[in-house]
């Protein structure tokens, strides 16, 4: 795969153009407590070099990833690049320094300190997309949004995004920014894939109605949709899908009882979906992972898909979903049908009593 292999989209209604594959950097850094198989600085730089060669311009990190080491690695790489050619996103919320009682959440004190630390680690004067990493029940949304607006006015942040929220939380954020005359939220980053579609209940509608770009993370469900798992096989020793979620950032919580297990996924629904994906992929000369990412790219309001890779071959394969081919309408509908989750009340009733939107599958 040579030269630019990337497609590009506007990020929501911001006018900012990003590659439709975003280089997620959770796999960068080897801090104690980090995920197994993470990349050291040299390997991470090589990964970003190749991503840029393929036309990628969108990088996503967070202050909590390896407690700042991921941001540091991105920062040393940016020093060798033309900064203006890249869109750099990071996130704020988590406890990076555990000995600081106020070093967590979305209050003004923490955000103002956290952004300065992220700028220092990233070795840049500004952050293109500054995202709240989750909802903060301890802080008023007005305080959080005014603080983020101040950062935009100060030139430290170009745009604001959110991640890991519910439908009512996102709509509340949107309404407050509008009525308070503050900087609009341009993006939502949320777990979304063929095995995790609950985001479609409400969040998609908010994004479409409000011009918010959608950034799915975990597009392969922690590797479950990579194509390496087959019907009848024993559960692998380590499936990232069984430790996806906010708790996975905290080593002591990775094996909580409410985290999914291999048995949660080992069923006919999973295998029927994966086998259909494999068959569809063969028809296009594509892999199962590429089918999973392509499905996301053809969903409404998706601007870019956040991938993670520990091997160059994984990066190359993921980027192979970006452009030059599409799933047919029939194939999209088949994947929608096979991956359809159980729709709870009141969404099932709404779906029955209202004419479905043509661009939604629920």
From TrEMBL:
Entry keyword set: Oxidoreductase
Any one GO molecular-function label of the UniProt entry: oxidoreductase activity
Pfam families in UniProt: Aldo_ket_red
InterPro entries, sorted: AKR, AKR_Detox_Biosynth, NAD(P)_OxRdtase_dom_sf, NADP_OxRdtase_dom
Origin: domain of life: Eukaryota
A cellular-component GO term for this protein: cytosol
Keyword Kinase: no
This protein's record includes keyword Nuclease: no
Residue span, NADP-dependent oxidoreductase domain: 20-338
Family in the record: Belongs to the aldo/keto reductase family. Aldo/keto reductase 2 subfamily.
Protein name (Swiss-Prot/TrEMBL): Uncharacterized protein LOC106181341
Biological classification of the source: Eukaryota, Metazoa, Spiralia, Lophotrochozoa, Brachiopoda
Gene: LOC106181341
């Amino acid at each position: 795969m040579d030269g630019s292999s990337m497609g590009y989209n506007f990020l929501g209604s911001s006018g900012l153009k990003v590659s439709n594959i975003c280089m997620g950097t959770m796999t960068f850094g080897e801090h104690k407590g980090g995920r197994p198989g993470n990349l050291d600085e040299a390997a991470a730089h090589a990964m970003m070099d190749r991503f840029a060669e393929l036309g990628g311009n969108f990088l996503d990190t967070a202050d909590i990833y390896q407690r700042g080491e991921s941001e540091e690695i991105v920062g040393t790489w940016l020093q060798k690049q033309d900064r203006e050619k890249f869109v750099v996103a990071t996130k704020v919320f988590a406890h990076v320094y555990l000995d600081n009682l106020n070093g967590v959440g979305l209050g003004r004190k923490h955000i103002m300190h956290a952004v300065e630390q992220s700028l220092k680690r990233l070795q840049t004067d500004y952050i293109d997309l500054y995202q709240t990493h989750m909802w903060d029940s301890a802080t008023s949304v007005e305080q959080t949004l005014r603080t983020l607006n101040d950062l935009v006015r100060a030139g430290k942040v170009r745009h604001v995004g959110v991640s890991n929220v519910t439908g009512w939380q996102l709509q509340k954020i949107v309404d407050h920014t509008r009525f308070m005359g503050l900087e609009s939220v341009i993006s939502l980053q949320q777990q979304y894939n063929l095995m995790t579609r609950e985001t479609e209940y409400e969040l998609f509608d908010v994004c479409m109605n409000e011009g918010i770009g959608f950034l799915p993370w975990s597009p392969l469900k922690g590797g479950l949709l990579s194509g390496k798992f087959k019907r009848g096989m024993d559960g692998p020793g380590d499936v990232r899908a069984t430790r996806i979620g906010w708790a996975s950032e905290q080593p002591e919580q990775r094996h909580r009882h409410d985290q999914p297990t291999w048995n949660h996924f080992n069923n006919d629904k999973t295998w029927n979906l994966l086998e259909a994906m494999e068959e569809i992929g063969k028809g296009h000369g594509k892999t199962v992972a590429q089918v999973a990412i392509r499905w996301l790219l053809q969903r409404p309001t998706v601007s870019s898909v956040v991938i993670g890779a520990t091997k160059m071959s994984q990066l190359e394969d993921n980027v192979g979903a970006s452009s030059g081919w599409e799933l047919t309408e029939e194939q999209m509908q088949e994947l929608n049908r096979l991956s359809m989750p159980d729709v709870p009340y009141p969404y099932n009733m709404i779906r029955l009593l209202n004419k479905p939107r043509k661009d939604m599958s629920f």
